[in-house]
Amino acid sequence: MPEPAIKGSAFEAAAADLVSLIERGRISREAVVAALEPGDFELLETKPSPVAWVPIGTYARIVELLLRFEGGGDTEYLRRRGAQAAERLFDSGLYAQLRHGAAIGELTESKGEHVFTERDGRLMTSLSGAIFNFGAWSFRVVEHGYEVEVRDTAALPEVARFAAEGFLEVMTSRTSLRQVRVTSQRPSPDRIVFRIPSTD
User: Which helix (H) or strand (E) holds 30?
Assistant: First the structure.
């Protein structure tokens, strides 16, 4: 079984932000080395390819440093990071292409309509495989909204869970043109449930 990992493209932003903190004197190189495990700092300096897989533990330790030294320990900082990742995805045009490719062009922005559908939800969860090499993500319609359930996810760190809240929030809001607040719970170490309120 492969080591739980995150795609280099997702790791890249966290690594660049931590390097920036070092360069600006917000945290010393020595403190970073002491907080990381052997091999983490090498990945930080070598900048893995966007398509490479980076151990999820390395990502977690880097984001935990960012949370402490840049985010002041506030989980809203993690939500903002996830939201920024979703905004980058939208700005790249990839998500619009995926929506169109999923045969829902009649509901896309090209016709002036912004409708969040069950197909959008399933498309959002399908993106997880391009970010993580573990976990089974599923989308379902529930009373008063939607849920995204993630199983086999004991390796997913809490910093990634809160970032995913912000990511899903922007994905839903940008698709529906309505503001939503996504929340999550971890009923067990191996299961996470994200709740998305109805956009109707």
Answer: helix 29-35
pLDDT digits (tens, 9 = 90+) for 107-157: 444 444 446 777 788 888 888 888 999 999 999 999 888 999 999 999 999
| Cβ density class 48-67: b for 16+ within 10 Å, e for less | beeeebbbbbbbbbbbbbbb
pTM (2 d.p.) = 0.87
**CA–CA gap between residue 108 and residue 112 (Å, rounded):** 7
Residue 37 DSSP class = P
User: Backbone phi, then psi, for 25, in 5-degree steps?
Assistant: 75, 15
Beta bridge partners of 185: 193
Tokens 């990839």 -> residue = 94
Joined together, the tokens standing for residue 119 give 């197909």
3-state secondary structure of 192: strand
Q: Looking at this protein, which amino acid is placed at residue 137? A: W
Positive/negative CA dihedral, 11, 12, 15, 17: negative
- Using CA atoms, how far apart are residues 49 and 8, in angstroms rounded to an integer? 6
Whether residue 77 contacts residue 59, with contact meaning beta carbons closer than 8 Å, is answered with no
For residue 50, give every residue at least 6 positions away whose Cβ sits within 8 Å of its Cβ, in sequence order, or none.
7, 8, 9, 12
3-state secondary structure string, 3-14? Answer: CCEEEHHHHHHH
Which residues on neighbouring strands pair with residue 6, listed in sequence order?
A: 54, 132
Q: Give the separation between CA 10 and CA 126, rounded to whole angstroms.
A: 16
